[in-house]
């Protein structure tokens, strides 16, 4: 690690535990900071807090008392999930106490180079692609952030011949001051997490922090086809590397005559790429740009694109049964993500959708249902989805109690050549703890089919 003295003797409040809070508390304690951990879960039920206390770290559990801010704090390290309208966070900001997230620690302490990836959609797929593309290159890739291990844990053990490939959310980026990746990637910007950020402008501002501290020695890989992303690029001081599916950009990454090019160098024909979906072409272009910038071998990039069929729960190919193709897209927790999944297929689709009712209708989904031959709906939103489907002219609409039942129903309705797609367009919390649990039930149900 570098800058190991910058937190020695400093008073730091770690607000919220989970994986990132625990990792940050342990690292700061190791660096000689005076750490107080505050978590909303009661002490009796809080095994993490008990373990930290045994290591000599002060813990306060069960509430977030404002009095914790009366100790001349040097900074607050906030769990990304705690919103800024939380009273103790609001008061810390009012008192001009720096409020950061643990990705800030990773950035300032790591000896390794860093590639940071953000965007409204496609972060995990792009992060995974870059990580795989950098294998067998001059620098050893380490994956971190929302995917893989907590970023400050990775940074703690990273060496100068490593490169950290970090998936960064808007929640994490908002809590940064000196965050400085060598290569940053901004994929796209849509309306998202407005309940957390308040306005779209605040959301875009948080995402923009991925390049805020970059200099002309760094590289900003950005989506030229997205007007909002291009506006962010105009303000970046980094060297620009655009990618586009619509234009030939000789200084960037692009598609031309059915092939992918990096600065006019042929990389691969699209016909050789196994990852489905037009939206994934953008993710691939971004990954190629970042990986090539960091020294990936073209042969390794080609190998990855010829073999990588998707991240778990993100338009993940599960298996083929009696000429039916099963795809798990449980991560599609909103309408936009489900639309992108549906638009990835030209074959007839049997769609499995439903979940938590956030009060919205599904009219926006209708334009993407043209190749859907049947809908199997489940969860709180099943009636709303059924209305949308029937309005779009889908004759076969059935209901299921859970995803596993929906799989059996979909298979019964299917014919050879069909795609059976779980793309819920809803969050999972009405029936499942996480979208992963929902996706795992889908995969297990597919595995049981004969």
Overall number of structural domains: 3
CATH third-level topology of the largest domain: UDP-N-acetylmuramoyl-L-alanine:D-glutamate ligase
Helix content: 25-40%
User: CATH class of the largest domain, please?
Assistant: Alpha Beta
Number of helices: 16
The count of β-strands is: 20
What's the architecture of the largest domain, going by CATH? 3-Layer(aba) Sandwich
The outline comes out as globular
Ordered list of secondary-structure elements with their pairings:
Blueprint: E1 11-15, H1 18-30, E2 34-39, H2 47-54, E3 58-61, E4 75-78, H3 87-94, E5 99-100, H4 102-109, E6 113-118, H5 123-133, E7 140-145, H6 151-157, E8 162-167, H7 170-174, E9 183-186, H8 194-197, H9 200-208, E10 219-223, H10 227-235, E11 239-244, E12 253-256, E13 259-262, E14 265-269, H11 278-293, H12 298-307, E15 316-321, E16 324-328, H13 335-342, E17 349-354, E18 372-378, H14 382-391, E19 396-399, H15 403-413, E20 419-422, H16 435-448
Parallel strand pairs: 1-2, 1-4, 2-3, 4-5, 6-8, 6-9, 7-8, 9-10, 10-11, 11-12, 16-20, 17-18, 17-20, 18-19
Antiparallel strand pairs: 12-13, 13-14, 15-16
Helix pairs in contact: 1-6, 4-6, 5-11, 15-16
Can you walk me through this structure?
The protein has helices at residues 18-30, 47-54, 87-94, 102-109, 123-133, 151-157, 170-174, 194-197, 200-208, 227-235, 278-293, 298-307, 335-342, 382-391, 403-413, 435-448, and strands spanning 11-15, 34-39, 58-61, 75-78, 99-100, 113-118, 140-145, 162-167, 183-186, 219-223, 239-244, 253-256, 259-262, 265-269, 316-321, 324-328, 349-354, 372-378, 396-399, 419-422. The chain is α/β, with parallel strands linked by helices. It folds into three domains: 11-100, 3-Layer(aba) Sandwich (Rossmann fold), CATH 3.40.50.720; 103-307, Mur-like, catalytic domain (UDP-N-acetylmuramoyl-L-alanine:D-glutamate ligase, 3-Layer(aba) Sandwich), CATH 3.40.1190.10; 316-448, Protein-Tyrosine Phosphatase, Chain A (Alpha-Beta Complex). The strands form three sheets. A nine-stranded mixed sheet has the order 7-8-6-9-10-11-12-13-14, sandwiched between helices. A hairpin with a 2-residue loop joins strand 15 and strand 16. Helix 4 (102-109) runs parallel beside helix 6 (151-157), helix 5 crosses helix 11 and helix 15 packs across helix 16 (435-448). The longest helix is centred in the middle third of the chain and has 16 residues, at 278-293. Its EC number is 6.3.2.9. It catalyses: UDP-N-acetyl-alpha-D-muramoyl-L-alanine + D-glutamate + ATP = UDP-N-acetyl-alpha-D-muramoyl-L-alanyl-D-glutamate + ADP + phosphate + H(+). It comes from Alkalihalophilus pseudofirmus (strain ATCC BAA-2126 / JCM 17055 / OF4) (Bacillus pseudofirmus).
